[in-house]
Amino acid sequence: MMNASYVFWVCLHDLLLLIVWTTNEGADIPNRKLDLLEAVNFNQLIVFLVANNLTGAINLTFKTIYMSDIESLIIITGYMFLLSAFALILYYRRWRIKFW
Question: Residue 51 class from Cβ within 10 Å (0-12 exposed, 13-18 middle, 19+ buried)?
């Protein structure tokens, strides 16, 4: 048993991404990396651990299953802002945190 509308939507979404990707390949767009991606790659393990601990703290603090849409959106936006800010601060100050 499957949901045909979901399968159709996913196929169209993937097709759109494929079209956008192939059209951008021919354009002369400078190959510039995003700072946030570089920041996460710079300290992958610590960003992952902070994200897991922040997720656990949010789930223990709030009853997320009973929250309204707007409250959930506020929490997820704050979550992503804190995690992104943490990764970027470590990256811009060139602080590499290793456990080995």
Answer: middle
Tokens representing 85 are: 């800010």
Q: What is the pLDDT of residues 72-83, one digit of tens each?
A: 999 999 999 999
29 burial level (CB within 10 Å; 0-12, 13-18, 19+): exposed
Q: Check: pTM over 0.90? Answer yes or no.
A: no
CB 37 within 8 A of CB 84: no
Residue 94's region, left for phi above 0, alpha for psi from -120 to 50, else beta, is: left
Cβ atoms of 67 and 84 within 8 Å: the answer is: no
